[in-house]
Amino acid sequence: MITIIHGKAIQLEIEAERVRRGIQSYLETKIFPQQNPKGGFGLVAGSAGPMITYEVVRLTRWLGLSYPNRQALLADIAGRRVDGGWADFVILNLDHKSQHTFRALQIAGAIEYTDYDRAKVDGYLRRVLLDDGSTLKDIYYAVASLDILEGGLPQDARQAAEAASLRLARRLPNDLTVSGSVFQEYGYFVLATERIGFDMPEDPDYTAKDLMDAVALLT
Q1: Residues 132 and 195 in one domain
Q2: What is the pLDDT of residues 2-41, one digit of tens each?
Q3: What is the DSSP-derived secondary structure letter of residue 155?
Q4: Is residue 7 located within the same domain as residue 69?
């Protein structure tokens, strides 16, 4: 009996070692090459997220390996320190969004962080209102961001936002069933009218035939 149990234990150890080598090989050949220049890991090569980076660090330690670019990661984490906590890792993305700006301003306000270029942020948000390539979602979050940044929506920004919202709403199909993105844009049109402070137009060119259904779902 003891011999049988001992034999099974040896087999389990051999299998465990085989699995460990397989995990190590996958980590070194598939995961490590996707590390970003600052030492982190994300959903795509070159990006970084705290949860994924943590799992890679933990797995590397469990395997008894040296973490690649360890000092670079420690320096990056240290550079994200804000008061008593840390800012999130940022996914490498050069496409700035007013939605991201809105969330950043919310966080900054919550921790009373003011060491950023307000004029630069203000200028960016106003450009969103005037950019013909903006969507109604972009307009809504630009308005919400300016509301936070300025402690209220300035009159000139209010007028620009109203004009942009009406211009973009006129371009939308008069049918919410065309696609989910169209439905979403009408939803942001409703939210924008409330945030900016102007009444929903009665002109049928601005209003989808089942827009009230969207309003009902959003309120």
Answers
A1: yes
A2: 455 556 667 778 888 888 899 999 999 999 998 988 888 8
A3: H
A4: yes
Would you say residue 139 has pLDDT above 80?
yes
Q: Which domain holds residue 16?
A: 2-86
Output the CA–CA distances (angstroms, integers) from residue 137 to 39, 52, 64, 143, in the order listed. Answer: 34, 29, 47, 10
pLDDT in tens, 31-42: 999 898 888 887
Number of structural domains in the chain: 2
Return d(Cα 92, Cα 149) in angstroms, integer.
25
| Domain boundary pick from 33, 58, 86 | 86
**DSSP secondary structure of 74-142:** HHHHHHTEETTEEPPP--------HHHHHHHHHHHHHTT---S-HHHHHHHHHHHHH-TT--HHHHHHH
Q: Is the entire prediction scored with pTM above 0.70? A: no
Mean pLDDT of 188-207: 70
